[in-house]
Amino acid sequence: MKNNLIYSQLNDNYLSPNQKATSFLKLVVFRIDSINFAFPIECVNKVINYTTVYSSGLNDIGIAHIDDQEIPIIDLHRRLFKSSQISTSNPGRFLLIAQNTRGERFGILVLKTPNLIEVSVTDIRTLPESFRQADTLGIASHVAVIPQENTSLTVFLLDVNQLLPSVSE
To answer: Rounded CA gap, 66 and 169, in Å?
Structure first.
């Protein structure tokens, strides 16, 4: 699938130095609390206005009716920080709808409009497996450190296959 190829291209040993120097990746960047996250644009189906998400409240995944389908919706703030930033007084403003490599669509609750940023592949690095296994940010596969005017922007690229529970066949 196309999503597998994109994540494969990010591996440091996959691209030659010439490809790294000239390759760019478009990322859809969004913020959860104080952390910036992103998906490659090819993984994102669309961003829509918030709609009702149904959930028992016992975990970080709910369901929403979108495009005549039931789409799992992930509250990343709750998954990472054990509390939801979405409430009746502060409802999510957007749902970012993405797709994993198995073709399953899912949504992420976000409070602000995501941004589209073009990033040089040389600014993206693979996260160590030891970090991924030890930290809740292990749902990210790569990190981009993007130079900006006076500082740099750190963005964690989410692994689309780590966000939903695996379903055994």
So the answer is: 25
Residue with tokens 């073009």: 118
Contact 54, 62 (CB under 8 A): yes
pLDDT in tens, 76-97: 999 999 887 655 555 558 999 9
Could you give the CA distance from residue 104 to residue 84 in angstroms, rounded to a whole number? Answer: 24
In the prediction, which pLDDT does 9 show?
Answer: 55
d(CA 118, CA 131): 26
CB 116 within 8 A of CB 43: no
Please name the residues in contact with 124: beta carbons below 8 A apart, sequence gap of 6 or more. 10, 25, 142, 143, 144, 157
Which residue's entry shows tokens 């690095």?
125
Structure tokens at 129: 């497996």
Q: 93 near 32, Cβ under 8 Å?
A: no
